[in-house]
Amino acid sequence: MNCLMCPRKCNVDRKQGFGFCQSPETIKIARAALHFWEEPCISGKSGSGAIFFSGCNMKCVYCQNYEISKNNKGAEISEKRLIEIFDELLEQGANNINLVNPTHYALQIKTAIQKWGKKLPIVYNCSGYESVETLKQLEGIIDIYLPDLKYIRNDKAKRYSNSEDYFQVATNAISEMKRQIP
User: Fold this and answer.
1) Please, is 182 exposed, middle or buried when counting C-beta atoms within 10 Å of its C-beta (0-12, 13-18, 19+)?
2) At residue 14, does pLDDT exceed 90?
3) 8 A C-beta contact, residue 126 and residue 164
């Protein structure tokens, strides 16, 4: 698959190599568990069913999930296994499925959710550095967008996340998210 999912548009064939995010073609996750420390309306009393995806299209120098995002730690899983994880989180009482840093696997995740049948609300928890074209393909799949807005100054975005176009890209992405979920 030649990857164009994020604004970097590496166009790398992920069967043959890696782009900026260093992600393989198959989904790679670092952790899946109930998460109680998200925004209270997301975690609720029984927790958010958080799935932390390995790799990242930002690679911020200050990342709190450095081992996962920058060092790409985790295990490759099949679509079938991802669907099983959705079910396991549901059985544990998750309030939702919280896709943490899903950008570089967005279309594979979409297919898995469609096969699963959306038994819980789906949270797209991201950096805000998203491709509007990819977000449009997620319309009707995502129930809650939870983007960061990290920078308004391009010089800081370039210095700390190698994304000098961050503010314009993120504001366009957030506008698309708002359009989908008014």
Assistant:
1) exposed
2) no
3) no
